[in-house]
Amino acid sequence: MKQLCLLCLLPVLLSGCYGNDKGSLSANSVIYCAEGSPESFNPQTVTSGTTIDAVSYQLYDRLISFQTENNEIGPSLAKSWHVTRDGKMITFYLRKDVTFHQTDYFTPTRSLNADDVLFSFNRLLDPEHKFHYVSGGKYPFFQSVGFGSLVDEVEKINDYTVRFKLSRADSSFLANLATDFAVILSAEYADQLAAENAYHKIDLLPVGTGPYKFKEYRVGSLIRYYRHENYWRDQVAIEQLVYDITPSKTGRLTKLLANECDVIAYPVAHEKIKEHPNLALEAVTSFNVSYLGFNTQKPPFDNKLVRQAIAYAINKQAIIDAIYFGHAEIAKSLLPGSSWAHDESIKDHGFSIDKAKALLAQAGYPDGLTMDIWALPVQRAYNPNALTTAKLIQADLQQIGVTVNIVSNYEWGTFSRLLARGEHQAVLLGWSADHPDPDNFFTPILSCASMNTGNNRAFWCNEAFDDNLYKSLQTTNTRERKKHYARALRILSEEVPLLPIAHSRRYQARHKNVRGELLHPFGGIDFSGVSKN
């Protein structure tokens, strides 16, 4: 309830800084029509793609980052790092020229240093930290990957050197530090808020080192960012970045055609966009998966035979044809085929009404049953139309005597909070990878640790599954890791806590005068290199 109350405070906190216009399509501003509102302005506290797209790369930087040209880990706020031979100590050497945002509510007096790194990670690691419970004490990505049990200490060596001491070697540790969630906050700003007894503002009125700084947020309407004049990387070309929050996909397209948006998320009418002389349609093959998740703590989905029956009864190809228009492939397992850990021996359940009926009868439901499916209320790359997907599944399941009630009346923030509390029975959702390591498809969304944070929407915990994930992270030998992931995939195929449906491409549409790369195979969007002519 604490987090919910803080979000309710947001309109009040920001009411004094509202402007009257959304910006203009000038050479100095970009308007991005987004599909939903952020849940927070701190990526540490959420995992939703809508929030990550809105805040992570615009406001913040990480110690290290993935390089867009080769997806390898490279320097960011840390100019270099060193890993000991046993993999249990990683030392980062910080840049000395990184400035934090100066905003209406904060003026920094120093550049980034080790204290900021310690604050950013100790806040989420230490339950006794004065900021740990400010937004509810939930740091879902870090808690789901067992960050707290892995990191014994974050040590300040000097003002520009920080060392992470690990309890064991972990082959995904650096990749996790390069994700959208591992952002660096300002310890000086936190001290100011503590002195004002205004701790709650840390995640609502953000301060980072990223290419843009926060100006205003009108709940459900817009977010406005201004250029960070002293950004440590190359100077940002755009002075003002506006997120126009437009949940309707047809509404976003209408605004694009009416010159009310420069770029739109998850466009429809691809062929029409391609034919328009002033518009461009872009796509990237994403590391993602859409799925139907079963709450395994609630009947009848506490019975794996029921889950298996539902899996056999769903016609995935029909969903691919109707929802993705061929711009996706059937998900045979959780991992996309482009992952090095993908295993061709893992077979899809396939579509068989006879097998589905037999399994349902074996489970004790010869006459069928009634179930709810919650449909994702926003468009995502992994599922551009969850409501229609739910209707297709509803029709499929009628053939085996299963009556489906579709729940689609929640807005995104409420939907996400209720899912984390396990209020759902089954849900159409998905996952977009934060980095290319295959562990990112397993640990954050299906481990026992992620069940405890609510990020595991299946609320499923399997010790054999977790053991294979753990063993994979203990070695850097790719062949050994792949063996463990293959075993994990077989467990998922048998237990079916969720049914993978599709691996899709991510699209965006823009005016042709908008230059620069926005989309990446994983992670959020990045406006730092965007310009207009």
From TrEMBL:
Molecular function terms in GO for this entry?
peptide transmembrane transporter activity
List each copy of the Solute-binding protein family domain by range. 72-452
Task: Please list every transmembrane segment annotated in the UniProt record, as residue ranges.
Answer: none
InterPro entries given in the database record = Peptide/Ni-bd, SBP_5, SBP_5_dom
Q: Which GO terms describe its biological process?
A: dipeptide transport
The cross-references to PROSITE patterns, in alphabetical order and at most eight, read: PROKAR_LIPOPROTEIN
Give UniProt keywords alphabetically. Signal
Answer yes or no on keyword Signal: yes
Q: Which GO terms describe its cellular component?
A: ATP-binding cassette (ABC) transporter complex; outer membrane-bounded periplasmic space
Family membership: Belongs to the bacterial solute-binding protein 5 family.
Q: What is this protein called?
A: ABC transporter substrate-binding protein
What is the native source organism of this protein? Answer: Thalassomonas viridans
List the taxonomic lineage.
Bacteria, Pseudomonadati, Pseudomonadota, Gammaproteobacteria, Alteromonadales
